[in-house]
Design a protein that fits this description.
By secondary structure, the protein is of the alpha+beta class. It is 21% helix and 23% strand. Strands 1, 2, 3, 4, 5 and 8 form a six-stranded antiparallel sheet that branches. Strands 9, 10, 11, 12, 13 and 16 form a six-stranded mixed sheet that branches. Strands 6-7 form a two-stranded antiparallel ribbon.
Length: 317
C-alpha cells in the first residue's frame, strides 16, 4: 500500500453521499501477506461525516486500541471480497460505519455499495444487520491479534481530510456468522425471523431470564441449559416458547408467543387480547428461576416490592 493521495475529482461526489444521518465513523480494511495481492489502500484527501459509535452489540469481544504488541505474524486465510459483499464472511472484522435509523439496513447497504464503487481497495466492504442497527464492515481476520488487522487500522486511520481523520473510529469486533435455518433448534427464537423474513414487526413475551450478572461463580453454559430446559417444559405444556442466548451479555431469555404489529396499540400502549391472555398465564417474570422483584415505587424504596411482569419485546432481526 502506498502513500499517494486518492484524487479528489474521482471520489468527492461519491464520498459526499455517504454523509447520511445516523452514521458513525470507524474504519476497517484488509491487508495481504506475501502470497496475496495488495488491496491498494492509499492515504487520501477525502471527506466523510463523523460521529460517535452507535450503541450496537459489537459481539463478544471488541477493541478500539491498536497499541498492543503484535505476536509472530500469521497468515490470514479468510478475507472479505466483493463477491459476497453484503454478507458477514468472517468472525473478526473492522467496523467502518454504524446506522441506527429506521431504515438502517438499506442505509448501510447503500453506503457499502458506494464505498465499493470507489475502487478495488474497497471491494471487501460488506454489511451486517441486527435488531439494534446495521454496520458497514471491512476486512476479515483470523483473530484479534491478526497483524493484518492492526496494519489495516493504521492505514485507514491515516486517511485525512483538511487535517482531520476521515474515519474517526476503528473498531475490531467479533461477529458470529448467521446460522442456517436447518442448523437451529426449532425452539431458538432466531427461527421466527427466518420463517417470516418479510415481517417488519414481530413481538414475543419475555417471561424469564438467566444471566451471570458478572458473577464469576455462575457458569453461563449451565444457565443456558436451564433456559433451554424451561423452554422445553413450556412447550410440553402447550405454549409456543422460545429461547434466546446473548453470548456477549452472558444472558439467556425464554419467551412465549409470536405477535404481529397489532400486539400493542401505538397510541394507548394497551396490549392486544392475545397478549393479555398470555400475560395472565405468566403473571411474573423469572430471574435465574426466581420471581424477579422490583420496587413498587423506585423513588420510595421503603414502600416494598412487587413481582416484575413479563415484557413484550421485538423479535431480534
Amino acid at each position: 500500500m502506498g502513500s499517494n493521495k486518492i484524487p479528489i475529482p474521482t471520489l468527492i461526489l461519491a464520498i459526499i453521499t455517504l454523509m447520511l444521518p445516523g452514521c458513525a465513523g470507524g474504519p476497517g480494511g484488509s491487508t495481504t501477506d506475501t502470497n496475496r495481492r495488495s488491496s491498494g489502500m492509499r492515504s487520501g484527501d477525502i471527506t466523510i461525516g463523523s460521529g460517535g459509535l452507535a450503541d450496537l452489540d459489537l459481539g463478544e469481544d471488541w477493541d478500539i486500541s491498536t497499541q498492543r504488541p503484535l505476536p509472530t505474524p500469521q497468515r490470514s486465510t479468510a478475507r472479505g471480497s466483493g463477491t459476497n459483499a453484503d454478507q458477514t464472511l468472517s468472525n473478526w472484522t473492522l467496523v467502518l460505519f454504524t446506522y441506527t435509523d429506521q431504515n438502517h439496513a438499506a442505509t448501510a447497504k447503500e453506503a457499502a455499495q458506494r464505498l465499493r464503487s470507489l475502487g478495488s481497495e474497497f471491494l471487501n466492504v460488506r454489511t451486517h444487520t441486527s435488531s439494534k442497527g446495521s454496520m458497514v464492515l471491512f476486512g476479515s481476520y483470523m483473530s484479534r491479534e491478526d497483524p493484518a488487522a492492526k496494519a489495516d487500522m493504521t492505514r485507514l486511520r491515516a486517511l485525512t481530510s483538511n487535517g482531520q481523520r476521515v474515519f474517526p473510529q476503528v473498531i475490531l469486533t467479533h461477529i458470529e456468522p448467521e446460522p442456517s435455518l436447518e442448523s437451529l433448534s426449532p425452539y431458538d427464537l432466531r427461527v421466527v425471523r427466518q420463517l417470516y423474513p418479510n415481517a417488519q414487526q414481530l413481538f414475543t413475551l419475555d417471561v424469564a431470564v438467566w444471566s451471570t450478572f458478572d458473577n464469576p461463580d455462575l457458569n453461563y453454559d449451565a444457565l443456558k441449559q436451564q433456559a433451554e430446559a424451561y423452554c422445553r417444559e413450556l412447550r410440553a405444556g402447550g405454549y409456543e416458547a422460545y429461547f434466546h442466548h446473548n453470548e456477549s451479555a452472558k444472558t439467556s431469555s425464554v419467551t412465549v408467543g409470536v405477535f404481529g404489529p397489532d400486539a400493542v396499540n401505538p397510541r394507548s400502549g394497551i396490549y392486544s387480547p392475545q397478549v393479555m391472555k398470555t400475560l395472565r398465564a405468566f403473571p411474573a417474570r423469572l430471574n435465574n428461576e426466581q420471581i424477579l422483584q422490583i420496587p413498587i415505587d423506585r423513588f420510595h424504596p421503603n414502600r416494598g416490592t412487587r413481582p416484575q411482569k413479563p415484557a413484550l419485546v421485538e423479535v431480534p432481526k
